[in-house]
Amino acid sequence: MTHDHPVATERAVSRPFGRLLTAMVTPFNADGSLDLDGAVRLANHLVDEQGNDALVLNGTTGESPTTTDAEKERLIRAVAEAIGDRARVVAGVGTNDTRHTIELAAAAEKAGAHGLLVVTPYYNKPPQSGLIRHFTAVADATGLPIMLYDIPHRAGVPIATETLVCLAEHGRIVAVKDAKGDLTATSWVTSRTELAYYSGEDSLTLPALAVGCVGVVGTSTHFTGALTKRMIEAYDAGDTGTALALHRRLLPLFTGIFRTQGTILVKAGLAAKGLPAGPVRPPLVDATDDEIAQLRADCAAAGLELP
To answer: C-alpha distances in angstroms, 205 versus 84, 185, 209, 232?
Structure first.
């Protein structure tokens, strides 16, 4: 494949959702029902204590496959009202049904979301032309800025470089959560568009910054948020030594949080810290004692205490 197009050199960096975003878990009560009071407490903690510029609600980490449309809307409304103008709320609305995604997008806008996270339609494996139609239809349906979510190992289909370049022409498609794990592809998109790229893999945040990413949508950042933000700010300030030292320090938890499905260990860790979490919903299963012990060890290796 050849690239005979002009390459952008320097331009102002846009961070439409800030630097640090966490894909927040959805707290449940002991009986598995939605814990809105807990969600508000957790959101305030993530903004005030962990330094998040935005929270992603109703993503996969938020157990979107097993929460109802009504629960999703109630969660957005409660968290948006609670955090006010201290941070932004990005609502996950992506499904593998364009009509349903548009319905969720409209509901999220009405509930007070500031932006939308739209994942590649999963399982039905649309061609690239179908992805363009899907994302464009969703972007046309509301007035909110959109972050595309490129995660082929879950969705089954990548968003191709040329597709991303095409979608970048839409005025409301402004960002990408990049979980493709292909920094060469990322480099081509960031060099050819003004899309704000956010690392969708905690451990790749620092190398992703080097090829044009502006921040992270994290999972371990429920615990590492403040230090991850410091790492990003150090890199932005040209202090690559500090950024690398923080990357190396946090690596055990950047990776350890995914020893099993990330939501499971985040909820276990939050519970250990006395923060709202509750159980996971089936088909997920709660962390075992051995998994919790390993999580404590991973936290300790990163210099973070887990009670």
So the answer is: 27, 15, 6, 8
Say how far apart CA 40 and CA 154 lie, in whole Å. 29
- pLDDT tops 60 at residue 8: no
Residue 11: partners with Cβ closer than 8 Å, 6 or more residues away: 194
Please pick, among 122, 149, 198, 235, the residue that the annotation labels catalytic. 149
pLDDT tens-digit readout, 121-174: 999 999 999 999 999 999 999 999 999 999 999 999 999 999 999 999 999 999
CB 33 within 8 A of CB 65: no
Q: Which of 47, 27, 48, 46 is nearest to 38 (CA)?
A: 27
Please name every residue paired with 34 in a beta bridge, in sequence order, or none if there are none.
28
In sequence order, which residues have a C-beta less than 8 Å from that of residue 69 and are 6 or more positions away? Answer: 103, 104, 107
Q: Identify the active-site residue in 177, 180, 229, 267.
A: 177
Cβ contact 187:212 at 8 Å: yes
Distances (CA, A) of 245 to 39, 215, 235, 238, 249: 33, 17, 11, 13, 6
Is residue 149 flagged as an active site residue?
A: yes
Q: Please tell me whether the peptide bond between 16 and the residue prior to it is cis, using omega within 30 degrees of 0.
A: no
* Tokens 């878990």 found at: 25
Judge whether 110 counts as a catalytic residue: no
